[in-house]
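Memo to structure team: turn this sequence into structure tokens by end of day. - J.P.
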Amino acid sequence: MKSLIVLIPLLLATAAIANPPWNANVRAADVGDTINEGESCIASDGDYIYCVCNWAERDRHAGLTYGRSTDGGATWTSGVWKDMSVGINWHSDPFIMIDDSHYVHLYCQFSTTVLRHYLSTDYGVTWSETTNVSEYLPSATVDKPWGVMRGSNIYVAWQQWGATQQGIIFAKSTDRGRTWNRTVADSTRTGITCICLSPSGIIYLMNRYWGWDGVFCTSSTDQGTTWAPWVTVDPTCSYTEGYGDRAPLPSIAAPTDSNVVITWVDDGLGDWDIVYCRSTDSGQTWSATARLPDSSAGGQCKGWVTADYAGRLHLMWYHTPSWPTSSSSRWSIRYAYSDDYGASISPSIRLTDTTSTSPVSFLGEYHIIVTDSTYARAVWTDGRGGDNDLFFAEAYLSDLGTQENPWQVTRLPGLTLQVPAIAHGSALPVDIGVLRPGRLSLAVFDATGRMLKNVDIGQRAPGSYSEVLAGLPAGQTLFVKLTSGRSVVTRKAVLVH
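Reply from structure team:
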């Protein structure tokens, strides 16, 4: 049977301070000093935040650590989440997401046999409507899933072999995970996959092949029905596992439809580095591989990149000054950002407010950073308490980077956008000024950073234009983003009943 043990209130903030603007670290979840928690995911929904992770002891104990905060991460409740109805103790590779109805979606892989989806409609308190995302494959292998969602649509990819469907498998649900359609995205390769959505809904899917060198990327403009030919991002990357990391984990973000950034772990220069490539033409061509700033000494691993609603990139990764890594290596989390879609990346700052060693070699294979319209939020495993526990930190988007006002972002001159500060009903009139010809698009986001509407206005000559964004939810604070090429302007509005 599926169970969620009673959540225990938890608050542990250190007296130390991370590099501003990151706040003091808070222990987000913990289920006891005999469990080393790692491989974590976080989902942000205003004051509601959820995190989940597996354990280094997963071969001996069934379950996941699950944490929930209802006050913006100030305090957390923590407990063991597990599903024994599958008949498999090994709970692994979890991730968690939130949809536009504030429903919470949790995914768990059981050994390498099956990937399952769980739905909560009461803010993560109880779980129901369980479905299998993958086939149940007791004699085959399902591994390394990741997913994204928008509205009621969910897209998940993983590697699979020893079954009728082999290679990189893609699954789609259009009813919030109640039913799934599985197809083969590529039958010729396996490896660690990662997936993201562009502002208009282009699916970008990448693969870091584990058996030979290579990073590859493809895309779909029709919700995964068809895929573009795979493009080689980097054919020469290499990786050898060590203490603290055992997989060249990739991540991918698309701040615009045409700009895409991929990161992964590489040891081609002698130690682990977080490296990245970027594309400005929807993944058709890629830049030369480059190391992140401050990523040349010691060991760097478990990098993650995400894009916020305004197109800014946020990156985090583990760092230790020692190489090769060992049980005495002291780890911290570094953070950097990019205001120009990865063309340049800021010097890094330390997100953690202390360094710590790890009592076990397995810290998990991913820890991530997410954003909504207000915050960047991160979760990771940390050994400062003697065993590895989940820790949380956040920073205001307005305090990260160079923009003084996150609601008024202009990448390049050439656009103006006017919206009423307060409007009535479900329609929002907007006035646009164009100084240079270009293709315009308007996107509307709610206060959590979810896209509610995306309108392709089309090619426009210099001049003034008016649009009405209809069908918007009244009684909410909204953010309207106007984009033309690399020019972006964002404004805030409130729709009242």
